[in-house]
Write a structure and sequence with these properties.
The protein has 157 residues and is mostly helical. The protein has seven helices and no strands. Helix 1 (8-35) packs antiparallel against helix 6, helix 3 (72-85) crosses helix 4 (87-102) and helix 5 packs across helix 6. The longest helix is centred in the first third of the chain and has 28 residues, at 8-35. 74% of the residues lie in helices and 0% in strands.
Length: 157
């Protein structure tokens, strides 16, 4: 809702690039910040949140026409019917659900790094960044060689 419709594809691409970059750079910087002392990451996060809050206050969303007849329950039912009738959307949502349910393993990385790998905070940062590197690598691979057949089966695998 922040971009004009014609700029949406570029906006989505830039948003994805920023997200993947943050998955790689953020944990690495966090590990180094924690090496400087346990208070440093919290102060850094506080400063960045203040900057983000200031930028959000300055952000002006473009005007949009209100939705006519916006009955919430009917809109939810329409959305569920659409998802159920569209196999591609249903598959994408199901795949996302599985990924979200299995993503809890990230919470175990600090224990894994400390007790099994005997690593410190900076190494934990690199371990956390490895998932972002993998995601970015798959993104580049799919951009160069997109899947053309049995897309759902490949994505599920």
């Amino acid at each position: 809702m922040l971009l004009p419709r014609e700029d949406l594809p570029q906006g989505i691409a830039l948003s994805s690039l920023a997200f993947q970059s943050s998955l790689i750079i953020g944990p690495i910087l966090g590990g180094f910040l924690y090496d400087a002392g346990p208070v440093v990451p919290y102060l850094t996060a506080l400063g960045l949140m203040a900057i983000a809050l200031a930028l959000m206050v300055l952000l002006m969303a473009p005007k949009h026409e209100p939705v006519k007849d916006a009955r919430t329950l009917n809109m939810i039912a329409d959305g569920l019917r659409y998802v159920r009738s569209n196999r591609i959307v249903l598959g994408a949502i199901s795949l996302d659900l599985v990924v979200v349910l299995l993503a809890g393993a990230v919470a175990l990385l600090p224990v894994f790094a400390r007790d099994i790998l005997h690593a410190g905070p900076s190494e934990l940062g690199f371990l956390r960044a490895a998932m972002g590197v993998g995601a970015a690598g798959v993104t580049v691979l799919l951009a160069l060689k997109p899947i053309r057949t049995r897309v759902g089966l490949w994505m599920f695998g």
